[in-house]
Specification:
Length: about 450
């Protein structure tokens, strides 16, 4: 399938696709970073998802300042996947990039990107670094680090975009539109993890790409502890849909399921399965039944791919419904038995999920500890997060506490475990979710 370009399309190197929904507070920052005077080689494509604030008013103001600016206002809220897909189809650029409406680009991004497209148009994709910007104190708190070496595959480079706050996000890319249309690569509606699926799909098919060793994108974090957002049913449901979509992609692209792509696949699957298992506890019986129906509906697909899922022990939950039914009750028992003087270690997504579940069981941890300085003194559910230095200074007061390590990364778990042992905590008082879930299977 070869797309015919009209004169207008031939002029535009890059389309920036922005989905907005009640985004008025940060829109000006976003568009200031995209404004390039006297340059008609890029366009802005905005899909407004039925905003109810003054977003449209701001967009119309900016529309007058750009040479090429498409504004598509939806009459019904359709979600980010629908908006991005519509943006891809409506765009006129040779390449497309995706920008969240509350984020912004670094200086000279457009000048450099447009020039790179002119020089290296044979590439299917360009990959660049990003920074994580803490909106509270206006500081950079993390940044990705790509390999500037040709021998590394796209899937391996994707793992280099991971930071403590971001994972496999789409806004580190500029992708050739013709490539997306030819292979019918679009965003799936999974509520969460749309970027993960989109990037995995790319990793199966991308052959030629170029790394630009510059930090072009600034991801804005408003509240450190809002990352991960919705827990419980929404997370379990989304992770399950992500697993099913990943398996469908593998089933239809078996010859392209290379060693490097397998690594990315297993990384995503591990997070999805452990997050699924963690969040099941916060689901109601009615929500559990909805999830069981999805599993039964996809039983053939799940069984068909057992041979590639042997590395993921928790995947057994999805294959045998009896194990799935037991999980909810075993998790409850584990947390209730371990509720005396409990201190959570790790305030990330998993830690926050476990905290939600403990609160549902009327269990309030004494404290939350995290080694990440960005979390220090943040408050979640009325509990202040402290760093390890605080724990060290106040250990005598809490030496009889039980510690629950809320992390699935084995290296991190071993490191935290060693920290606590050196402090003087006995082995019996240290538990990790890894130990718990391995016992289930």
């Amino acid at each position: 399938m070869v797309l015919q370009m009209n004169k207008f399309q031939a002029r535009v190197n890059l389309s920036i696709i922005i989905c907005t929904y009640n985004s008025s507070k940060y829109l000006n920052d976003c568009f200031k970073s995209l404004f390039l005077k006297n340059n008609g080689k890029h366009e802005i494509v905005v899909i407004d998802d039925n905003s109810s604030d003054n977003t449209i008013k701001i967009l119309k103001k900016w529309k007058k300042k750009f040479t090429f600016f498409q504004l598509i206002a939806l009459k019904k809220n359709r979600g980010v996947s629908y908006c991005r897909n519509l943006g891809i189809k409506k765009s006129n650029g040779k390449y497309v990039s995706f920008c969240d409406s509350d984020d912004f680009y670094s200086k000279n991004f457009l000048k450099i990107m447009i020039k790179k497209i002119d020089l290296y148009e044979g590439n299917e994709l360009f990959l660049f670094n990003h920074k994580v910007f803490n909106n509270l104190d206006k500081k950079i708190i993390a940044k990705s680090c790509l390999y500037n070496k040709k021998k590394f595959s796209f899937s391996r480079q994707l793992n280099q975009t991971i930071t403590s706050f971001t994972r496999w996000n789409i806004w580190s890319l500029s992708i050739k539109k013709e490539f997306l249309m030819k292979h019918k690569i679009f965003f799936k509606n999974t509520n969460q993890n749309e970027d993960w699926l989109f990037n995995f799909n790319l990793s199966l098919l991308i052959k030629k790409f170029k790394v630009i060793d510059r930090c072009f994108y600034n991801y804005r974090v408003h509240k450190i502890l809002s990352l991960g957002k919705l827990n419980g049913f929404v997370s379990s449901y989304s992770r399950l849909l992500t697993i099913i979509n990943l398996l469908q992609l593998v089933s239809s692209n078996k010859k392209k399921f290379r060693k490097d792509v397998k690594k990315l696949f297993y990384d995503i699957i591990r997070i999805c399965t452990t997050d699924f298992a963690t969040n099941i506890l916060a689901c109601t019986k009615k929500e559990n039944k909805k999830i069981e129906k999805i599993i039964k509906r996809n039983k053939y697909l799940l069984n068909e791919n057992k041979y590639i899922m042997n590395k993921i022990k928790l995947f057994k939950i999805f294959i045998y419904s009896s194990d799935f039914k037991k999980l909810f009750y075993i998790n409850q028992k584990f947390l209730k038995e371990y509720n005396q003087n409990i201190i959570l270690f790790c305030a990330g997504y998993v830690g926050r999920s476990i905290l939600d579940q403990l609160i549902l069981l009327d269990i309030k941890p004494k404290m939350i500890i995290d080694n990440n300085q960005a979390y220090n003194n943040q408050i979640i559910k009325g509990i202040k997060i402290k760093n390890f230095k605080f724990l060290n200074k106040n250990y005598k007061k809490i030496k009889n506490s039980n510690f629950l390590i809320c992390n699935y990364n084995l290296k991190d778990v071993l490191s935290i475990n060693n920290q606590l042992l050196k402090l003087g905590v006995s082995k019996e008082r240290i538990k990790s979710l890894n130990d718990h879930f391995l016992k289930l299977i």
